[in-house]
Structure formats: C-alpha cells, structure tokens
Amino acid sequence: MLVLGSQLLKLYLQLGGLALLGFILGRLLPPKIPLYIGKFLFWIGVPIGVIAFVRRSDLSGSIWLAPAIAWVAILLGVGLSWLWIRSKTNSGSASEKQGQSSLWSHQPTQGSFVLSTMVGNTGFIGYPVTLALVGEQYFAWALFYDLLGTVIGAYGLGALLAARYGEGSKSYKQFIHAIVYNPTLWSLGFGLLVRDIPLPPLLENSLQRFAWSAIALSLILCGMRLSQLHSWSSLKPASVSLVIKMLIVPLFLGIILSFWGLDRPALLILVLQMAMPPAFATLVLAETYNLDRDLAVTALGLGSVGLLITLPIWVLMFGIPTA
Q1: Residue 278 phi, psi (nearest 5)
Q2: Secondary structure of the chain in the HEC alphabet?
Q3: Which residues does residue 278 pair with via DSSP β-bridges, in sequence order?
Q4: Cβ neighbours, 10 Å, residue 111
C-alpha cells in the first residue's frame, strides 16, 4: 500500500503540476497558442510518440481485445444515457402538461449528454496516466483502445448521433476526413512495420525522449484548454453523465473482465481508459452541430477534476496483483 500511495502521489504531482502549468500559461498567453500546440501534437508530437512507444510495447496476447472492449464501453454508455433520457422525459411529461419546461426534452441537451457518456480523453490524458501507472510494455493496449475505439467512435458514431440531435451541418465529410487523415492512425501502422528494425542507440534514445516530451506537452495543453473553459453550468446533467462514463461503465466491465484471466496490467489499462473524463471531441461535436455547449464544457471540466478522485479506486480494485 505504501508503494501504491507513493506511485499515485508521484502521478498526481506529474499530472497536476503540468496541468497547472498549462492552466497558468493558458491565462497568460494569447488564445491562439493552444491551437498551435494542438496542431504540433496532432501532426508531429503524438504520431512520433506512438512510433516510439510501439517499439517497446508487448503486442503478444489478446491485445486486439482492447478496441473490442472500447466499443462495448461506448455502446454501453450510449445505452445507459438513452435509458436515463427516456426515464426523465417520461417523468417530465406530466410537468410539461402543467406548463413547466423539462431540461431533458431539448434535443441539443440530449445530444451533449449522450456524447459525454460514450467517449473519453483516452489520448492526451489516457496515455500519460497509463504510462505512469503501468509502463511502456503494455502501452499498446491503451493505444489500440484509443485509436481503434475512441477516435473512430467519436468521429464515426459520435458524429451520427450529433447530427441526429443537433441543428448544425448534416454533412459527414469532415468527420470522414478526420478519421482517414488522422496521422496517429497512420503512425500506428508505420510503427508496427518498423518496430523490429534496430536503430542506433543515440537515435533510439532521442526518439524515446521526444515521445515523453510530447506526453508532457499534451498535459500542459490540457491545462491550457481547461483555462479557457469559462462555463460551469449544467452541473446536474453533467454529473449524471460522468457517473455513467467514469463509474458505472468501467466498474461493470472491469468486474466482468477480471474473470477473463487477463494480465493485471492489461486489465488496469482497459479500466483506466474506460474511466477517462469526456474527450475534447465531444466539445468539437457540440459546437459543430449546435448541441448544448454548456453541458459539454461542464462535463469536460468536471470530469478532469473527478479523475483525481477516481484513479485510486481503479488502481486498488484492478491494479494490485493477486497473491
């Protein structure tokens, strides 16, 4: 337990310190700076980091289970959110007849609620958390979960749902473009092709250092983006969505997976990825399709803070190897 406590404390200092630095810089620097940093990470930093970490990842075993579990978590989140919306709209029908408007009757609010329960920030936050707690050997589990689950889920199913509930453009071309031209997906394929090719020690070490620097910069970017979130309204629906996304789904699927005989590090990574706070993609979709932006912003910010509380729960339940 003492080792676990020191490990979590070290992680909190890393996450909190870099995020706090980003928050402060976000308040001081011009608003366009996070945009430039995000583009650098999207096109260069994260793709090169993926190549570097794939070289040290263990690809044996049931690694392809990761994206399958990601999709189960996504669909479970959507299903639970739909059941909640249906229960609230049915219970609110009587009050509406009496002239009281129900929050849950608005489709833009429903859309943001569903999106915030289905995909998490498994990249910018999920990568550093899993690397810090589990290490590089099992990093491919987090990578496959993110790229083949979250990314496609957000800009595939997420876009369809956003168009269904929203009022914006109904064209899916931009989201197809976002998937096809995602450099991280291409870097995963390239990394798998060259992972067994030996590199000079200096180049290998430089590649690894660059990858870790990109991870640190991604945490700073998260802090900078959080500093630009000025709306904390819609606390009640955001809290419900986070209970579904960050507690119910990972707890239910984590218990089931614990009986499958997975290695404890792989199990912990899957649970951590399922328990990540809502992805920034939910805010992008909310803005594009005129959904409830306040709800998306509130869920994103509140979830990022709530992660600090839920992390010890998942590590204690799924991260300590059995004797």
Answers
A1: -55, 145
A2: CHHHHHHHHHHHHHHHHHHHHHHHHHHHCCCHHHHHHHHHHHHHHHHHHHHHHHHCCCCCCCCCHHHHHHHHHHHHHHHHHHHHHHHHHHHHHHHHHCCCCCHHHCHHHHHHHHHHHHCECCCCCHHHHHHHHCCCCCHHHHHHHHHHHHHHHHHHHHHHHHHHHCCCCCCCHHHHHHHHCCHHHHHHHHHHHHCCCCCCHHHHHHHHHHHHHHHHHHHHHHHHHHHCCCCCCCHHHHHHHHHHHHHHHHHHHHHHHCCCCCCHHHHHHHHHHHCCCECHHHHHHHHHCCCCHHHHHHHHHHHHHHHHHHHHHHHHHHCCCCC
A3: 120
A4: 28
Structure tokens at 192: 């798998």
Q: How far apart are CA 138 and CA 161, in angstroms?
A: 32
Q: What is the pLDDT of residue 322?
A: 43
How does pLDDT run across 206-215, given as a tens digit for each residue? 999 999 999 8
Residue with tokens 């496959």: 144
Q: Taking Cα atoms as reference points, which of 217, 174, 282, 194 lies closest to residue 42?
A: 217
- Model confidence at 302, pLDDT cuts 50, 70, 90, reads very high
**Tens digit of each residue's pLDDT (9 = 90 or more) over 35-61:** 899 889 888 998 999 899 888 888 877
Residue 113, token pair as written in the block? 């609620």
Question: For residue 170, what are its two tokens?
Answer: 């109904």
Nearest-angstrom CA–CA distance, 59 and 53: 11
